[in-house]
Amino acid sequence: MNAVATKPGQDKVQDAPISLPSHTFDQMAHDNFILDVTGEESIIPAYEPSTGKGTAVVPWNHLYISSIDDLNKATKAQQDYYHTFKKNFLEGVYLDLQGYFNYALILLYDLLAQFDQTKDIEWLEKQVDNLGLHYPRTYSYTRTLLLAKMGSINDINGIRRVKMQMAEGNPHNSYEYEWALGKVFKDKLKLDKDSELLLNKIWYQGNNFYGIPFCQEQILKLFVCVITNLKSDFTREGTSIEQQFDIIGDMVARKHFKYRLNSNNYIYSLQELRKELYILILKYCENKVRDQYGHKRKLSVDSYSVAKTEIEVGVLQKVEGIIAANIGIIEEPDQETELELNVQNTTRWKLALEKLEQMIPVKPVDWFLQEVLLLGARNKKNPSVESIFYEASKMIAKKDKVTALILYLHYIDHDLKSKEFDNKPIAKTIQKSLFNNLEQVHDFEIIIQNLIETKDLDNAIVNVRKFYETKRRKIQLDQELIDAAASKYQDTVELLNNLLDEESEENGNMALTEKGQEKESQIVLNINSVADVVNTSSASRYRFGLTPTQASLLQLFAKNNFVLPIIDAQQFAKSNGLFIGSLIESINELHFEYLDDVLIEEEEDVYIINENYYKKILTDEHDN
Question: Fewer CB under 10 Å: which end of the chain, C or N?
């Protein structure tokens, strides 16, 4: 939780520097402060300047801006336009960015870098004021970073002035209210006046899950419900939500930050604590929506240790009870939301498939097939979509052979469309329940080969639906020849009768090889085992001096769409004489400082790698 930070006793000294929120100097320090230009911002029209003529803006889609160095990620055309934009800005001409705010945020860092050289705070304040005036979406960022620079040179008066401006709100933001949460969701959520005003004051940067419009709407709907009920609970207890929040804020201000009661810092910290508690409750609501939608990754909801009990017992326990009583207001995701959720969480389908598996004993096989096809459709953007059909084929094999083969055909069809054709065979244990003899194995191999060559899934399914139909041999006999032979070759007639009697028993017996030896049936579609993965590229593909074994494991992840079953990873490590835990830990340690996060994460029965992280650790010559 973000908070106000200062040195103990600081506000007792008249000329000591005024404190800033801890995130100003720590988490939002110059090198680490990331400005998130959301997808919504990319369509917001920029401030309409009086002088808006000039070179047409070069589109530059959403980017997380953390420093002036991010300009290097732009194309040559974008870089050229930035320099034109900057030149015009410094000359008092404010070009219309048409919603491409990367340029304005890069300029903010550019101005800060120039201040680091000149230390001219008046010049910096003037420039960032102009930036906030003409490109209002940058206003909150300019205030935070300006305060940090003022703090670095101990500009007490400047800090006080800017804080007062912030307390009064952005005087230049002519359309910020238009995009305030309360106004945006007033009609959708049927907000009363108090709820609308509360949401208008909420500034929550959000994340990828919150960024999905349907998810955001459900989170805010639950949040409004929780706050409304929380206010009612406190009223019945003879208090108010503001009073309870201030009790917690008082403990944090005096015990954690050592602020003097009713000092400027004390009052400011109480105001900030109220905002933080609202955001904490909002995160609780988001985590509950994530639970409902099968999204495993959760937000951190840590709180101040000095007021941990008061926060958990006085607020969060009530929040939990209200959420439990109103969980039904969360709607099921629509189709578009399902697609986005399954892209963000590539193993989310497993929970849905497990629920379908539980229904196999009581539901018709056609129902199971249709539900798996629907699950696949909801995962069409998921790079692991083919795994849904492969696993479903195994699940239904014992109950219905035809359905199992059809689902395997869907696996092959999706695998053909993926980046890399893995072509996993049907497991040996499953083959025994699907095929009675080598002839059936051979026939199914032909169907698969035709599917690979023609990509005609419908035709392959038609052939599989007839797969188990009884095949009868037509034998035409000339009765006159038989009668003639009967008298001359009685032994031959007896042998022919024996052969005809035995023909009906041929189906179901294992076919023999030419040498008369029984051969185990198995569909082999050119699959390598995990331990036999060929390291087609050396460890030089990666930035940080990996061993061949480490590099091979990363290539194995890439081959499997960055999701690897733990059992396969253990087999790989064992084949190389290592323990998988130690191998993964060594890889994570090499990359942690560079990524500021772990590269390989464990989720239930799989290991996963963030694809963007993988691309970052490739050397430039291999980074596509």
Answer: C
Task: Dump pLDDT digits (tens) for 75-101.
Answer: 999 999 999 999 999 998 989 888 888
Q: Which of 234, 254, 237, 255 is nearest to 315 (CA)?
A: 234
CB under 8 A, 24+ apart: contacts of 20-29:
20/147, 20/148, 20/151, 20/159, 21/272, 23/144, 24/144, 24/147, 24/148, 24/151, 25/148, 25/151, 27/2, 28/144, 28/145, 28/148, 29/148
CA distances from 3 to 26, 81, 135, 322, 462 (A): 11, 38, 28, 26, 65
Backbone angles phi, psi at 350, to 5 degrees: -65, -40
SS3 at position 564: strand
Q: Summarize the confidence of residues 140-154 as an average pLDDT.
A: 86
C-alpha distances in Å from residue 545, one per residue of 274, 423, 440, 554, 601: 48, 32, 50, 13, 21
Check residue 67 and give its pLDDT.
85
> Is residue 376 within 8 Å of 414, Cβ to Cβ?
yes
Residue from 188, 228, 235, 220 nearest 325 by CA: 228
CA distances from 446 to 351, 401, 449, 454, 461 (A): 34, 17, 5, 12, 13
Query: Residues in the chain, how many?
Result: 624
Q: Is 346 helix (H, G, I), strand (E, B) or coil?
A: coil
Q: Which residues lie closer than 8 Å to 520 by C-beta, 6 or more apart?
A: 428
Residue type at position 25: F
Q: Give phi and psi for 36, each to the nearest 5.
A: -95, 105
What's the rounded Cα separation, in Å, for the pair 268 and 358? 55
**Token pair recorded at residue 261:** 């009661």
**Tokens coding 538:** 């050396």
CB 435 within 8 A of CB 521: yes
Span 569-579, pLDDT tens digits: 988 988 887 88
Mean pLDDT of the chain: 79
Question: Coil, helix or strand for 565?
Answer: strand
Buried b (16+ CB within 10 A) or exposed e, 70-102: bbeebeeebbebbebbbebbeeebbbbbebbbb
- The pLDDT assigned to 244 comes to 93
Pairing of strands 563-565, 606-609: antiparallel
| CA 620/CA 615 separation, integer angstroms | 9
User: What's the mean pLDDT in 338-359?
Assistant: 91
Reduced 3-state DSSP string for 91-151: CCCCCCCCCCCHHHHHHHHHHHHHHHHHCCHHHHHHHHHHHHHHCHHHHHHHHHHHHHHHH
Q: Closest Cα partner for 288 from 256, 325, 337?
A: 325
